[in-house]
Design a protein that fits this description.
10 helices, 190 residues, single chain, 14% strand, binds adenosine-5'-diphosphate, Rossmann fold, five-stranded parallel sheet, alpha/beta, globular
Length: 190
Amino acid sequence: MKYYILFGPPGAGKGTQASAMVEKFNLCHLSTGELLRSEIAAGTQLGLQAKALIEAGSLVPDEVVEGMIESKFKSVQGVDGFLLDGFPRTIAQAEALDSMLDKNGEKVTAVVSIMIPDEMIMERIRHRASIEGRADDAKEEVVANRIKTYHDKTEPLVDFYKATDRYHEIDGVGTIDEVRSRIFETMEKF
Ligand code: ADP
């Protein structure tokens, strides 16, 4: 099985690019943000816990997302691999992922990291807010907190994965098609 990580700051275009990637390489798209939003919509206990944290632009506890991911690894069939989108988001999550995979003799295949400058993050999220209506996109201070959380907690993963030689950076500035071709070119190497 292939285990790709789609990495990048909020608004980098992970969700947009993920659909083309899963189709081309027969992967299961696992977006922790989407999984959490469906828990909230379904009004589950987990959704209730996650809602306030997400709406403040903070992260939900590591164990919560790790549990969601592990149960998908066990239940999803008929694919050539997984595309992890929004996970891991902390060093602890990355270590948990390594041990989940290690138990089955597997490892992370590659990290595809879409990079855009901070100014563009705000701009893209403002645009998305007007289309998708996500609660965590609506308030500037929440978006600012997500950017801060990204720099503090998630960006350290760049060095974590660079040390494994599986880190591939893609320039996320350009049209959707341009960015998609850059991603495919990289993924075709695996
Ligand atoms: P974006 O990439 O645009 O920030 P996501 O849809 O990936 O948005 O995530 C939305 C929110 O869900 C995050 O701001 C965070 O609160 C929560 N979340 C998603 N993935 C994780 C994760 N791996 N660990 C902790 N919290 C997460």
